[in-house]
Amino acid sequence: MRIQEAIVVEGRYDKSALAGVVDTLILDTAGFGVFKDSERLALLRKLAAKRGLIVLTDPDGAGFVIRNYLKGAIPKGQLKHAYVPDVYGKERRKRAPGKEGKLGVEGMPPEVLRNAILRAGATVLDGEAPSRPSGDLTPADLFALGLSGTPDAAQRRAALLRRLELPEHMSAKALLAALNALYTPDELDELLNG
Q: pLDDT by residue (tens digit) across 97-150?
């Protein structure tokens, strides 16, 4: 299912579980790390303004603390909330259940995640999308722009991240996803050459 909005989850395992369900940009908050990471919050605000943002956190107390923080940091009309049900148990990778004994996003079946996103009001994009929408940047484009694979790529990428006010520690892959989510190729060309 391809949707317009970006999705924010708590951690990388949630991100992995969701990647098999939905075709969109999925970011994580690094748990409570978003509280101290102004760059990550700035990126979430940009994405929310550009294409909308769906918050999908675990159904426990920590998940609601993160959800409420984002609710106060991002304008209401740019944010949608997806909820998973309370299911008691533990994820396969963990030795013991979480503090409240509930499964998180990573432990939910794909259909539950899909339904949660649809109930949140996600904008499903019509038609079967090609694997890469026409006009999106590719890793080859980053190479051609000198942002990956060249001796000074890290410095060029760092300068671009500062200029675009994106988190400074983004990898080339994360930068590519953010650029495709925030800018058309023409807008990016204008930013780089204008």
A: 888 888 999 999 999 999 999 989 999 986 544 343 445 788 888 888 888 898
CB 78 within 8 A of CB 106: no
Q: What angle do CA 118, 122, 127 make, to 5 degrees?
A: 90
15 with 46: CB under 8 angstroms?
no
Contact 5, 54 (CB under 8 A): yes
What CA dihedral angle connects 163, 169, 172 and 174, to 10 degrees?
-100
CA distance 97 to 90: 4
| Beta bridge partner(s), residue 157 | none
pLDDT tens-place string over residues 20-56:
999 999 999 999 999 999 999 999 999 999 999 999 9
pTM: 0.73
